[in-house]
């Protein structure tokens, strides 16, 4: 396992103001490095984890591609 910086992101699920949200975690800061597609993330050797929702290339608040930076922390990546 290697130590990496993990970035957490979230967006309200279904509609603005929802009490539930979609969350995802990346090994890159998508405010700085923007990958247009999930395949580009993989080709760059980065990781993007999510369990529901869709791929979001960057955090922004328009046209359904909104997402908020929730924080980051050093962690260990273990891939199965």
Q: What's the gist of this structure?
A:
With 80 residues, this protein is mainly beta.
Jot down its keywords:
4 strands; 38% strand; mainly beta; 80 residues; four-stranded antiparallel beta sheet
Structural commentary:
There is one protein chain. With 80 residues, the protein is mainly beta. The protein has one domain. Helix content is 8%, strand content 38%. The protein contains 1 helix and 4 strands, in the order ββαββ. A 4-stranded antiparallel beta sheet has the order 3-2-1-4. A hairpin with an 8-residue loop joins strand 1 and strand 2. It is globular. It starts with a strand and ends with a strand. About 6% of the residues have low confidence.
């Amino acid at each position: 396992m290697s130590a990496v910086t993990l970035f957490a992101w979230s967006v309200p699920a279904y509609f603005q103001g929802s009490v539930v949200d979609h969350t995802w975690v990346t090994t890159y800061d998508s405010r700085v490095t923007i990958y247009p597609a999930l395949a580009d993330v993989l080709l760059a050797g980065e990781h993007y984890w999510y369990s529901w929702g869709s791929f979001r290339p960057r955090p922004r608040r328009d046209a359904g591609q909104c997402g908020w930076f929730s924080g980051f922390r050093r962690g260990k990546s273990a891939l199965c």
